[in-house]
């Protein structure tokens, strides 16, 4: 990022396994809104704040790691929802740390109210913070933080 800029100009949302099924997957937990619709709203917000927003989703851990590596010199901020990979992917944890790209982890559901195995994220120690349990609104909160991140840090 150019030193004269004070906002994240390029932000990427990286979604993990099964998040391509939002809107039709366990609606009581994840809601009925498709991510395409969420993303359209997020694009409007990012554009209004002078940021470029990108999106990537994969059901493959390796592809997610590759995408994080691609962000090293091209992205200012990562918003990541690793899905179930949150609970065991030390590789994603290491990729985020190695990239040195600031990141926030998001979860649509409140992982602390769910099954015991979902209550711990091994990715969380590699990110700046975690937003959880507010439905798809977590993406909006993370995006607002991302575009202003360099103003406060």
Can you describe this structure?
With 153 residues, this protein is α/β, with parallel strands linked by helices. The chain has one domain (10-152): Dehydroquinase, class II (Rossmann fold), CATH 3.40.50. The chain has helices at residues 27-30, 35-48, 61-70, 90-99, 137-152; strands at residues 10-15, 52-57, 77-81, 103-107, 129-132. It has a five-stranded parallel beta sheet with strand order 2-1-3-4-5, sandwiched between helices. Helix 2 packs parallel to helix 5 (137-152) and helix 3 runs parallel beside helix 4 (90-99). The longest helix is centred in the last third of the chain and has 16 residues, at 137-152. The protein is globular. The two termini are 14 Å apart.
Averaging pLDDT over every residue, what do you get?
Answer: 89
Q: In one word, what is the shape?
A: globular
Within the CATH hierarchy, at the fold level, what is the topology? Rossmann fold
Number of strands: 5
Q: What radius of gyration results from the CA coordinates?
A: 15 Å
Number of helices: 5
CATH architecture: 3-Layer(aba) Sandwich
CATH superfamily: Dehydroquinase, class II
Taken in chain order, the helices and strands follow as EHHEHEHEEH
Strand order across the largest sheet: 2-1-3-4-5
Number of domains: 1
* Structural class by helix and strand composition: alpha/beta
- End-to-end Cα distance, whole Å, is 14 Å
What is the CATH top level name?
Alpha Beta
Beta-strand fraction estimate? 15-25%
